[in-house]
Amino acid sequence: MDIKTIGIVGAGQMGNGIAHVMALAGYDVILNDIDQDALDKALALIAKNMERQVSREKISAADRDAALARISTGTALPPVAQTDLVIEAATEREDIKQKIFDTLLPDLLPHTILTSNTSSISITRLASRTDRPEKFMGFHFMNPVPVMQLVELIRGIATDQDTYQACHGVVDRLGKTAASAEDFPAFIVNRILMPMINEAVYTLYEGVGNVMSIDQSMKLGANHPMGPLELADFIGLDTCLAIMNVLHDGLADTKYRPCPLLTKYVEAGWLGRKTGRGFYDYRGDAPVPTR
Ligand code: CAA
Fold first, then answer.
1. What pLDDT band is residue 186 in, cutting at 50, 70 and 90?
2. Looking at residue 120, what is its pLDDT?
3. Residue list, ligand 1 pocket, CB within 6 Å
4. C-alpha to C-alpha distance for 13 and 108, rounded to whole angstroms
5. Which of these, 94, 232, 271, 282, is most buried using a 10 Å CB contact count?
6. Ligand 1 center from residue 148 Cα (angstroms)
7. How far apart are the first and last CA of the chain?
8. Does a structural domain hold residue 288?
């Protein structure tokens, strides 16, 4: 099927990145959020990130202007339901995602494909509660979306081949690379990445290293672009904890137990960059390790 319009639910760090790349690829985008303020901030951030691409000659000023003109925003869900492809990118909580799909259902077009950018929740379970499990799949971007090359495509048990190919076609048009993952907890990237981050937090918790030595070790010793604790702050510690809980519950193996120190940071509201504090304190000019 020919996808022309894309509805994105959630204007947070993933939703705004997805809107950014979809608009640059020529799709008409409706970006939705319950909060108008979040939409205004997302549009300003998209414009800023596109400006960065213009200044590095990755795109032209005309590309940027045309892409920005393709994005409309709104707080109502019915217009989103009337698009060819919906990508839900709300908070990583199943009850919230479920409510969004429930609200979309009465207004969907017969051919609308529903997808979720969930990083860990069962696609099969989300799909089973809609009227179209065969037209439902996981469409998982990595952060920062404009920079990261990979998109994980996750088929639920009922997803049909046409839906998979339509989504694969979108990934191709974005110039990104699709990796197919089966629908098991946290799919591929987070199944491997999150236990590493959780182990880094255990390494901190047990005093094997401090924040700086742990991050430096993995940057300089394993050539990772960011250390695991810096990356955890970048992803959001609440998201990291939510994914570890999905792995722990879904695979029922104690090796996935979240580190108590990760839980403590989340309880404190120290969620990483987005709240100004996590394993680093971002409130000054340069990040300062908190341990
Ligand atoms: N929009 C557009 N361009 C951006 C951007 C954005 N939001 N953020 C960075 N860039 C561009 C920069 O303009 C720059 O472009 P050039 O190469 O043309 O110069 C390039 O990206 C590199 O950026 P910087 O020079 O500012 O910084 P850097 O070299 O330190 O790279 C980084 C930043 C790309 C984020 C790098 O540190 C990195 O790759 N980190 C790891 C990211 C990662 O692992 N992401 C996956 C997280 S897991 C996930 O997302 C899944 C999940 O479900 C949790």
1. very high
2. 87
3. 49, 52-53, 56, 58, 119, 142-144, 146-148, 189-190, 193, 225-226, 231, 235, 239
4. 25
5. 232
6. 7
7. 52
8. no
32 catalytic residue (yes or no):
no
Which sign, positive or negative, has the C-alpha torsion 167, 170, 172, 175? negative
Please name the residues in contact with 144: beta carbons below 8 A apart, sequence gap of 6 or more.
13, 17, 49
The per-residue pLDDT of the chain, averaged, comes to 97
Does pLDDT of 153 surpass 90? yes
User: Which residue among 119, 120, 122, 198 is the active-site one?
Assistant: 119
Number of domains in the chain: 2
Catalytic residue at 245? no
Mean pLDDT value of segment 199-221: 98
* pLDDT given at position 1: 78
- 3-state secondary structure (DSSP) of residue 90: coil
CA of 56 to the centre of ligand 1 (A): 14
Residue located nearest, by CA, to atom 53 of ligand 1: 119
**129: CATH:** 3.40.50.720
What CATH number is associated with residue 247? 1.10.1040.10
